[in-house]
Design brief:
Blueprint: E1 5-9, H1 13-25, E2 29-33, H2 36-45, E3 50-54, H3 62-72, E4 77-82, H4 87-95, E5 100-103, H5 108-130
Parallel strand pairs: 1-2, 1-3, 3-4, 4-5
Helix pairs in contact: 2-3
C-alpha cells in the first residue's frame, strides 16, 4: 500500500526527520510537524489518513492533541508513540479513539504494518459511513 498520507507529530526534530525519511523510502507520503498546534493546522490544510503522535511533547501534549484531532477529523486513524510504557495513558488514549500505540524506538516493519492497517480501517469506516 503506497502513497498513504501520514502526519508524524513529535517535538524531537532529529527523530521525526530520520523516521520520516525511512517511512518515505517505503512509499509513504510523510509530513512532519513539531507539536500539537502545528499538527492541527496541518490537518486542517490537508487531512492525513494516519497520524503518528508522540504522547510526551512540550506545549500541547499528545493526549490533548489526540482529543482535538478526533474532534475535528474523526476519520483520521491515530497511532500513539511513546518511550514510556504508562498503561493508564495508553488505555485512555485508546478509549479516546487512538487506533493503536507503539513503544519507541519503533520497529520499522511493525510501524509500516500498523500504518497500512490504520489506512485500511479508515477506508473501511469511510465506506461504511457512505452507505
Amino acid at each position: 500500500m503506497n502513497g498513504i498520507r501520514v502526519l508524524l507529530i513529535d517535538d524531537e526534530v532529529d527523530y521525526t526527520a530520520t523516521l520520516g525519511k525511512r517511512l518515505g523510502r517505503r512509499g509513504f507520503s510523510i509530513r512532519t510537524v513539531g507539536g500539537g498546534a502545528e499538527a492541527l493546522a496541518a490537518l486542517d490544510a490537508e487531512e492525513a489518513e494516519v497520524v503518528l503522535l508522540d504522547i510526551k511533547m512540550a506545549g500541547m501534549d499528545g493526549i490533548k492533541t489526540l482529543q482535538e484531532i478526533k474532534r475535528r477529523h474523526p476519520a483520521v486513524e491515530v497511532i500513539m508513540l511513546t518511550a514510556h510504557a504508562n498503561t493508564d495513558i495508553v488505555i485512555s488514549s485508546l478509549a479516546m479513539g487512538a487506533f493503536d500505540y507503539l513503544l519507541k524506538p519503533v520497529n520499522l516493519d511493525e510501524l509500516a504494518a500498523k500504518i497500512e492497517d490504520g489506512a485500511m480501517r479508515r477506508k473501511h469506516n469511510l465506506e461504511l459511513g457512505a452507505r
